[in-house]
Design a protein that fits this description.
This protein is an alpha/beta fold. It has eleven helices and 14 strands.
Length: 290
C-alpha cells in the first residue's frame, strides 16, 4: 500500500461569514493569536508525515502564497537588526514543506476545488484538509485516518459526533452498527435536516482519499447553485464499498464560525507559555465583572 506523502488544502473560498475582515484578505490568514489559521492546518499535515502540499487558491489569495514564500526584504531587515529569533521564525515557515499552488478559476464548490488538484496528486492516495476546522495541535487529527486507510485500503472520512441541532451544518454519515472504531460508510448526506439525518456523526474537514475519487468528481453533474459537491463523489465510493469513517479524538474548533473562532483564540493563547499567566489572570478578572 502506498505511503501518504501528499495533501490538498482548498483555500479558494470567499470567507463571507467574516466580512468585512475578509473583504481584502483571505479568511485563511485570520490569526489564532499570532499565527494564521492556514499555518496550523499545514503544520498538522506535516506532523502526520505529509511532505508535499497543494493549495487550491483563487482570486485574492496571494497573501497565502506570500506567507509560505521567501520574504527577502523582511529577512534582510531582521538580519541587519540582529533579530535572529524572528528571522528563524520567518525562515522556518518557508521550509515547512514542498508547496505547490493551483487556481480554481470559478467558485464551483468543494468537489471542483479538489478536482483542480488532480494532476498534482497523480496516482497516489492523499490527505484532504479543510481550513475551517482546526484541531488541538497536541493531537494529530490525521493520524487516526491514516491508520484506518492502512488497515482497510479504503478512502476515509474523519468524523465526530455533533449535537442533533447542528447536523444541518455538515455532511453526515451512518453510525457504526456496533462498537467498531472504524466502520463502512453506507450513507452520507450533505447537510440533512435533523429528522432525516442518518446519525449525528459529522464529517469534520479531514479525509484520506484514494485517487479513484477524481474519476467520480470528473463525472459529476453540477448540483444546487451550479456547484460540484465532494459529498456526491464520496457517496459513490460508499456505494462501491470503498469508504470508511474514522472518529477523530482531537478537540476541534470550527474557525469559520465566529464564536468558535473566538474560543480558539482564547484556548490557543492559554497554551502559550509567554501569554498563559497574564492572560488567565485577565480572563478571571473579566469574568468577575460579568
Amino acid at each position: 500500500m502506498k505511503t501518504l506523502r501528499k495533501a490538498v488544502i482548498p483555500v479558494a473560498g470567499l470567507g463571507t461569514r467574516f466580512l468585512p475582515a475578509t473583504k481584502a484578505q483571505p479568511k485563511e490568514m485570520l490569526p489564532l493569536v499570532d499565527t494564521p489559521v492556514i499555518q496550523y492546518v499545514v503544520e498538522e499535515a506535516i506532523r502526520a508525515g505529509v511532505e508535499s502540499i497543494v493549495l487550491v487558491t483563487g482570486r485574492g489569495k496571494a497573501a497565502i502564497e506570500n506567507h509560505f514564500d521567501v520574504a527577502y526584504e523582511l529577512e534582510d531587515t531582521l538580519r541587519r537588526r540582529g533579530k535572529q529569533e524572528d528571522l528563524d521564525l520567518v525562515r522556518g515557515i518557508t521550509h515547512l514543506a514542498q508547496f505547490a499552488y493551483v487556481r480554481q478559476g470559478e467558485p464551483l464548490g468543494l468537489g471542483h476545488a479538489v478536482l483542480c488538484a488532480r494532476h498534482a496528486m497523480g496516482d497516489e492516495p492523499f490527505a484532504l484538509l479543510l481550513g475551517d476546522d482546526v484541531f488541538d495541535e497536541r493531537d494529530s487529527a490525521l493520524d487516526a485516518l491514516i491508520a484506518a486507510y492502512h488497515a482497510t485500503g479504503k478512502s476515509v472520512v474523519g468524523v465526530q459526533e455533533v449535537p442533533l441541532e447542528h447536523v444541518s451544518r455538515y455532511g453526515i454519515v451512518n453510525a457504526p452498527a456496533g462498537g467498531e472504531s472504524v466502520w463502512n460508510v453506507t450513507a452520507i448526506v450533505e447537510k440533512p435536516a435533523p429528522p432525516v439525518a442518518p446519525s449525528r456523526w459529522a464529517v469534520v474537514g479531514r479525509y484520506v482519499l484514494e485517487p479513484r475519487v477524481f474519476d467520480h468528481l470528473a463525472a459529476l453533474e453540477p448540483g444546487v447553485g451550479g456547484e460540484y459537491q465532494l459529498t456526491d463523489a464520496l457517496a459513490i465510493l460508499a456505494r462501491e464499498g470503498h469508504l470508511v469513517a474514522a472518529p477523530i479524538p482531537a478537540k476541534r474548533f470550527d474557525t469559520g464560525n465566529k464564536l468558535d473562532y473566538l474560543k480558539a483564540n482564547v484556548e490557543f493563547a492559554l497554551k502559550r507559555e509567554d501569554l498563559r499567566s497574564e492572560f488567565a489572570a485577565y480572563l478571571k478578572d473579566l469574568a468577575r465583572g460579568l
